[in-house]
Design a protein that fits this description.
5 helices, alpha/beta, about 120 residues
Length: about 120
């Protein structure tokens, strides 16, 4: 959930339905823009890590959507690099990345720059 409120663990029974649906669908998509991710509470970041690790334990696909919330160009790239580094350190890498722009006005070059970094960093 994209919130700044303290979150329960993704393993809490409250999320049983989401986990079951993810099993049926074969995966889980997580929409957590890098800058947004770092602006949220530690419990939010832990929740995202738990989601990714859970998909690994279930042998499911895990897509993480990376979008330029809060800035384009070097700002977007820098936060995306920090995000990847953080996930790597936590042992929580998704099986695929989606670079998306929800109408922020960033250029195609900004998106390609992040996509290229992801390809070079995680391949």
């Amino acid at each position: 959930p994209n919130t700044n409120e303290p979150l329960d663990s993704f393993n809490d029974t409250y999320y049983d339905s989401l986990r079951q649906t993810s099993r049926l669908g074969g995966g889980l998509s997580i929409d957590s823009p890098p800058k947004f991710f770092f602006e949220r509470s530690e419990s939010y970041r832990t929740f995202v890590i738990e989601e990714i690790k859970w998909t690994h334990s279930e042998r499911l696909q895990c897509s993480v959507i990376v979008s330029p919330y809060g800035g384009c160009g070097d700002v977007f790239l820098s936060y995306a690099q920090q995000f990847v580094k953080y996930l790597m350190q936590q042992g929580a890498m998704p099986t695929e990345w989606v670079v998306e722009d929800y109408g922020t006005g960033c250029s195609a070059t900004d998106l390609v720059s992040v996509a290229k970094m992801l390809t070079e960093t995680v391949s």
